[in-house]
Amino acid sequence: MIIDCHGHFTTVPAAHKEFRAQLARLADPSLAEPDYRAPSDDELRAAIEPNQLRVLRERGGDLMIFSPQASAMEHHVADPATARAWARACNDLIHRVGGLFPENFAGVCQLPQTPGGSLDDSVAELRRCVEELDFVGCNVTPDPSGGHWTAPPMTDEYWFPLYEAMTELDVPAMVHVSASCNPAFHTLGAHYLNADTSVFMQLLQGDLFERFPTLRLVIPHGGGAVPYHWGRYRGLAVRMGRPDPSRLLRNVFFDTCVYHQPGIDLLRQVIPVENILFASEMLGAVRGADPETGIAWDDTRTYVDAAGFSDREKSQVFEGNARRVYPRLDAQLTRAGR
Amino acid sequence: MIIDCHGHFTTVPAAHKEFRAQLARLADPSLAEPDYRAPSDDELRAAIEPNQLRVLRERGGDLMIFSPQASAMEHHVADPATARAWARACNDLIHRVGGLFPENFAGVCQLPQTPGGSLDDSVAELRRCVEELDFVGCNVTPDPSGGHWTAPPMTDEYWFPLYEAMTELDVPAMVHVSASCNPAFHTLGAHYLNADTSVFMQLLQGDLFERFPTLRLVIPHGGGAVPYHWGRYRGLAVRMGRPDPSRLLRNVFFDTCVYHQPGIDLLRQVIPVENILFASEMLGAVRGADPETGIAWDDTRTYVDAAGFSDREKSQVFEGNARRVYPRLDAQLTRAGR
Known about the structure:
The structure is a homodimer. Chain A is α/β, with parallel strands linked by helices. Helices cover 43% and strands 10% of the residues of chain A. Chain A has helices spanning 14-18, 24-27, 41-58, 80-100, 120-133, 160-169, 187-205, 208-211, 230-240, 261-270, 300-305, 311-325, 327-335, and strands at residues 3-9, 63-68, 105-109, 137-140, 173-175, 217-219, 252-255, 276-277. In chain A, strands 1-2-3-4-5-6-7-8 form an 8-stranded parallel sheet. In chain A, α4 packs parallel to α5 (120-133), α5 runs parallel beside α6 and α12 (311-325) crosses α13. Chains A and B meet through α7, α9 and α10 of A and α7, α9 and α10 of B.
């Protein structure tokens, strides 16, 4: 089977978006909290079937690990109650998609992170999503400020309560920032990739996995700049007296959201196959097709198929690695006889 | 001949570093400005000959485009007088190296940029270095804050006075940040690469080269994450209604500071040969050799030689492109019969 480990609900019904009227209360606290007008099942099907589900099927995919729209997480909104309500609404919507299409979508949750805020709310929402809604992982932003980078490195003890919950629940996190509020960083063309690159280097500098040996982090977008600069990281590690970056690969995984063949070829050449998880991020940052080849930019299945993996390796990239990194997904699939 | 377009004076004599005692005056303005105790010619030779010059020669290189140590530019120090004096001292030292080894080093200057400060001082220092010291280019940081990213994108009119001087003088800039003051960003393993990536995206979003059609920018470190994600940039451009990123390659160039063979292979595959400038950044971020291959990390000549370029293409990468992008260097070499 083919598991796409990185999809966001970027096509939510209008009713869901209306709840973001909650932001008006930050300027005028006298306003009532908006009611959440839940989209109907038909609205949800109309949002999913012609979009993510259609594309998943067209490309031979079976299941997508599905999370709320990343750029709409907007962790930079600093009010904890607003963050809690928004994360809850977004996650509940993902849960409903999983209920409508249980064979095709497994949930990954948004956390109510805020700049400088405690992670208690994030831990509580993670527990709710995993224990009550059968989610299989979470998205964690290393930069709740949205491009101002005011949070400590992800190796700092600030993050430990979240890691403790993740390891107890045995769920991984995808390291994924939200929208950039900094005009220097385009959200999709700079901020996302910078976050991937920066966090890998933070991990190389620290000893996080000595303390949390079973913690697992997925770095999306093919690892940002990391595989392209793998020699730089190896050399820096030597210079800094750190273990080779390959040591991090017990706990760190890269997805295949790299939108051309040479990029996927490099990823395959540099990163061990055990650490590569198939993903497309569709319908995400880049839509449409390359006018020169006719291949959809995010049709990463085509690039992976052409990258020279053996059948056994493809099976790891498409399925085995995801089942290992997301054991709760594996358990669900096994229970369903898949 | 082989021109290395990206080297920094990372091995300065102690006497030069002592001038940085100027920083103490920021806390205690009653202190006198330190005298600049100029290193002797012998001290300079001892700093260069066993280091950059030795390695340049060992690898068959002829000339290095040489600039002050990037991480020591420290544009985050906000006092304009301090920035002016430091840039001047650093650039004068580069000029002296060029005087001692005129066949081997051509100068590129540090600018006295400060966070949010006017670029007038930078324009004046650029003019001094080019017109009086025969420098052939400059380094420009897109983030004088040192990792807080408070400056507007490089397409903003804030930068135009510098671009006007650069185009008038016909010198390119290498886009190069200095040390990171943000613990989220390791200077060499994240901040440098993030800057490369972010600025390319800024350029894709704007119309800078419509206004400055002869402006030339060199993005170092192999373009950060850009070549690895070339498909992402092409797809984003379509989505945003922008010209294909290849359009930027009339004005934007990438160096070869990518420290392993697969990275250089990808660079060659994705970026037109006309836009690739040989560089090593030695003695820079990554020192020593890969214990598995024995090849020095920054021995990019070895990777370029093995990348499958034709002889004509290698001549472009090693020499022709640098002479085209740095016309003042070309004029100097031509006058010298080289």
